[in-house]
Amino acid sequence: MQVELQAHIAFHLTGRIPQGEGDALARSDLQPALFAGYRDLTGLRYDFPLVLVADDKQPVLSLSALLDGAAKVVAAKDDGERARKHAVRLQREIRKLIAEGATATLFKLCDLAIERLANSDEQLGKSLKDLRAALKKDGEVIDCDKAMPFRMVQHVWKGLQEQKAQKARAAINALIMKLSDILSADFGHSKEGMSAERLQAAIGSAHRDAFDFAAMSRLLTETTINVPMAESRRQRIRSLLSTLRAQRFFAPAVDGDKRIGVGEPYSFLFENCTEAVAAYRERLPKMTELAKAMAMARLEADGEYSEARHDAFFAGFGDNGLDADDIAVFPDYLVCVNTNDLRAAETDLILRAFAAGMPVKLAVQTDDLLEQSPIRDDYVVGGLRGRQLASSAIGLGLPYVLQAASSGLYQLREQIARGLAYRGPAVFSVYSGANGGSLQPYLVAAAAAESRAFPAFTYDPSAGTDWASRFSLAANSQVDVDWPVQRFDYEDADQQLVSENVAFTLVDFAACDPRCGKYFAKVPRAKWTADLVPVAEFLTREPGDLAEKVPCLLMVDRDNQLQKVIVNDTLVGEARRCVEAWRSLQELGGVHNSHAARLLEQERKALAEQAEAAAAAVAAAAASQPASAPVAAQAAPVVASSTAAAPAVVEAAPEKSSDDPYIETSRCTSCNECTQINDKMFGYDANKQAFIKDLNAGTYRQLVEAAENCQISIIHPGKPRNPNEPGLDELIKRAEPFL
Amino acid sequence: MTIHATECLLRLHDEHYELEDYQSGVPRWCTGCGDNAILAAVQRLCRDEELRPEKTMFVSGIGCSSRFPHYMKTYGFHGIHGRALPVAEGVKMSRPDLNVFVNTGDGDCCSIGAAHWIHGIRYNMNMTVMLHDNQIYGLTKMQASPTSPRGLKSNTTPRGAYLEGLNPLTVTLGVQNVSFVAQAVDWIPEVLYDIIRAAYHHKGFSFVRILQRCPEWLPKMLDPWVHDPLKINLLHHKNGLTLSPNISKVYRTQEEHDPSDIHRAREIASELDPIPVGILYHDPHVPRYEELRNAGQQRSTRFIKAGFEAELDKFTVWPAADAKAQTGA
């Protein structure tokens, strides 16, 4: 034993496997133990794949949620259990198709899957087609892969931009119409406008000969008091019109609105920050001009533009930059950039653009968290560029910041939409997990989030003025502990069930990556000793307590055999650093906040001192008056008597008119008496308690019979509805006791 | 080693159960029978607690009540007369992870199965036992049962029953290790559900006697109590049942009773009119037999094989020399 322990410690400290001891980790083979069961993701109903639909409220839906919804619709009509099962099969088949690399819309994938499932079974095919028909929304289906984060962000962004554009287009169109009306009204009042030819042109050809247009024109021009519009105003309106018509910020609507967007519309989607900033800079004069034109046009349309007051103001419009309301009308710039392409100068530039208030939304994707160490021939868990950007952005105070692994993006969809709709800059830092390894990106991303290697948080300056309302860690699992702990069940060699609580640490995350293989060594089962302690436990111990202990990890191989691997000190050090970073995030998020704890301690102390002082005062008072100590104060509190107590709150019973039949459903004992009489009239609710399903499905006689048969008399037949029913007099008499 | 799939890292979409997921077939009980109310309450419990059907087990003996497992879409064991409890105890012993329910009747439990009942209470294994007490043998068409009241005329007692009916509550409360005793009536479904739910949540032998109507053979017997809410004494306490305002309004005879008070519980149990309804006794600290005996060791293939071999060996004719070796002589 001693020899083995020495070998284990040697590996832990030096990374060298002594001859004949231990076993170099056969890398591709092992996965963290908690991954057992996730070998085939296509069989699991989790958040992905996602469906990107054209919907303002919920632009991103999960496939499972969509199909479950469809199954519910079908199940309402037919055999529910079957429909649900078929929906699950269809989901699995679609997941398989996507895993095989299919890219198509939901409807197409559904059709493909149905074709594959139902080639032999006609009945199944029909049932699946019903399901397919119940699907109301189509859209692109995307799995959790390298391209997913940007596609999702862009999809949500496009939806929001379209909403914005619609509003802006409507406003611009209305202004153009009003200004044009002003011009044509002015023209109509001018001499040319009232010339005989004009007047003639204004009348349809059928009655053209019935009028003397020359006389009409003469009359009109002589009698109307003609005050022509000032030339300067006419010029101004014309120039406003041309500015409004020539704007390129909002593309014309798809349904063919030709009034605006004469020039090629600008694109607001960029692949690097430099271009985005340059474009913004270049377009700024145009933007100012359009904002100015809109403000002036509004005044003109209302007839409130006064040259004396407004000319000077508008001459200097936008010199100090546009205000937030003006900027909010314009489209936001979206930059989607991978951290591999993000140079330091770019980061610097974009941060300065943020500070200057440029309305840019920046999506940064990190594909690989392992980075080459600059000082050794080694890897460190980093992803620094993305994280740095996020924390610098928070430091600025103004931007909206969201950081998350791609596995959590669906859960954060509302926060993403909120960030994109935020009036100001925003940063979305995403870890995709697509590091080119053999594990599915989803699992890698989920492992990064779970192991605190890439924790999720949001910083929303619009949510309030303090950190408590702005900063949220809620998207992480088990926020209040260092490492999330999961229950892990397995069978031992005697096939007995063993349950363990296993923490998922940074070391587990590193163990997913073959490049970290050299930090692990597999220990043959014969050499599993008590000196091997789980990494999470190892990390919590005091360094002095660690002599003769070696940190180890539970892993599983391809056959789901449990293995233990020991971990090199390098990674343990990484894990220590990671948990430090996590703890400081926790403090920001209000979990185990040291300032709060210190304050609490102070308050407690003060309270205890107060109580002590009060007790001392009472004791002193009692000592001075020993004879008159109040006895009642020492008596035990009076025990509540066991008499029937009327409940404090009595719900007011809804007043039922005795004319309408009803059942006291909550008292029903489900005994089938009434449903046997008429199961169309009486039905059971979700709790299997009776209610009147359809009053028209039966007669008054049946109501009375049901009331008589009901063992606990909860059916009240009311008054008959059909005065022509035979034998009514007798029935009314029979119904009397139950009214 | 086989590893069970765990639910971590992934956010799996929850399965939600509906009442229909637990319904199986149309009950063959008579129209108006109180068993229907118990079935509905139990199905509601299963749905609300999201009991997985494959992890849930209903065991019964013989009688009207004991058809219960047929109508639940879970595992079930329709056993032999009076032996519902031993079967359930065996299930619990070997599979403590299952939710075990027992449905038994006044004949099944209090007559032929009485010995098992007494010892079942003493063993205190974690299961919910529902005694469907209609005070008559219904399945065999009206013979007096142990709980039939004195004077009840039936096919076996044409001159009226000679003996006072047995009181299952006082019997149960008199046995060592009793840990949960409650009484419900089938015609107050809300309270019935609450009691069964409390019984399910108790970790131990939860005994619920349910007074139920038999519309076929004793159609009017419980009518005075069914139609007069004042003849029901509802027990409530912060550690027992809390009554909803609607129930409180209708059933005004109430008593605050602390379920940890066994002496008062025994007094209440002896009261026949008004009928006490609620949790009479509850002690969560009584040790459970399956825990004392470390139940739930999964049987390894080696263990099962050895057991089979031992059984077969009983019938093996051994050569003289081997037989010696076998007997260890």
What do these coordinates show?
The complex is a heterodimer of chains A (739) and B (329). With 739 residues, chain A is α+β, with helices and mostly antiparallel strands. Helix content of chain A is 44%, strand content 13%. In chain A, α2 (63-77) packs across α5 (122-134), α7 (196-202) packs across α8 and α9 packs antiparallel against α10. The model of chain A is unreliable at 627-654 (pLDDT under 50). In chain B, a hairpin with a 5-residue loop joins β5 (136-137) and β6 (143-144). Chain B is globular and about 80 Å long. Chain B has 329 residues and is α/β, with parallel strands linked by helices. Chain B has helices at residues 35-48, 84-94, 106-112, 114-123, 168-173, 189-201, 223-227, 245-250, 262-270, 289-292, 301-313, 320-327, and strands at residues 56-60, 75-78, 99-105, 127-133, 136-137, 143-144, 180-185, 205-211, 232-236, 254-256, 275-282. A nine-stranded mixed β-sheet of chain B has the order 2-1-3-4-8-7-11-9-10, with helices on both faces. In chain B, strands 5-6 form a two-stranded antiparallel ribbon. At the A-B interface, α2, α16 and β15 of A face α1, α8 and β10 of B.
Outline of the structure:
The complex is a heterodimer of chains A (739) and B (329). By secondary structure, chain A is an alpha+beta fold. Chain A is built from 24 helices and 24 strands.
